[in-house]
Amino acid sequence: MNKRTFIKSGLLGIGVLLFSKRASALEYYPRPSDKKWAILYATWCGSARDAGVWISEGMDGIANVFDVRENPDLSQYDHIIVGGAIRSGVTSQLLQDYLTKNKDLLKNKIRGYFAVCGNMMQPVTPETTANLIVNHLANICGVTEVPSKVFLGRITFGLMEPDVRKQMESFKMKEYDNLKRPECMAFGEEILSTVQVQK
Ligand SMILES: Cc1cc2nc3c(=O)[nH]c(=O)nc-3n(C[C@H](O)[C@H](O)[C@H](O)COP(=O)(O)O)c2cc1C
Known about the structure:
The protein has a single domain, classed as Flavodoxin domain (Rossmann fold). The protein is α/β, with parallel strands linked by helices. Helix 2 packs across helix 7 (181-198). Helix 2 (47-58) links the parallel strand 1 (37-42) and strand 2 (63-67). The relative contact order is 0.15. The protein has 7 helices and 7 strands. The strands form 2 sheets. A 5-stranded parallel beta sheet has the order 2-1-3-4-5, sandwiched between helices. Strands 6-7 form a two-stranded antiparallel sheet. The structure holds flavin mononucleotide. Flavin mononucleotide binds at residues 43-48, 85-89, 116-119, 153-155, 160, 164, 168. Residues 43-48, 85-89, 116-119, 153-155, 160, 164, 168 line the site of flavin mononucleotide.
């Protein structure tokens, strides 16, 4: 190989590396585990992402956390937790479509559900869980009887689409933050212990 070809192929290799790095999914802090865990979330303004990362933290970080917008390939994962932020009573259409499209793959792997909502800043009731989990996420996935949790989320005007922000402000809505990291972590611990007990 002459010098010019060597330099050319070197540059090509660096380009391929850079591109593949950019194309790969965002890695959080997965720690070694004999089982592969993934948390799939859908968010508009980030609370459901934070809930997902904190659920993983409650599992000592063994779960990798994916935004559904990455359209992740979850076929290599053994255990999957699914959750999303709520607008107008449901999670994002993208998440609903992903769950429908990947129903067969997810069916034997779903270990928990979560939803993040405002709930008019009122405590979560069994009815809230029924609406957002049982009749929504579990219904789409066709998997029931797994740990489920609804978290109260937050409103951050600066992260909203301008038209949505305008609408929310016109309702005299105030910013709030009710998402609690310890609650999310406790849910991660709960799911992990359920699976460990089964094995
Ligand atoms: C346009 C809009 C619609 C919403 N609709 C609901 C709703 O139907 N029920 C509810 O409990 N919370 C609702 N919320 C509150 C959100 O679920 C809450 O802010 C959540 O933390 C957002 O999650 P995210 O930050 O991951 O997008 C709504 C918020 C917005 C901005």
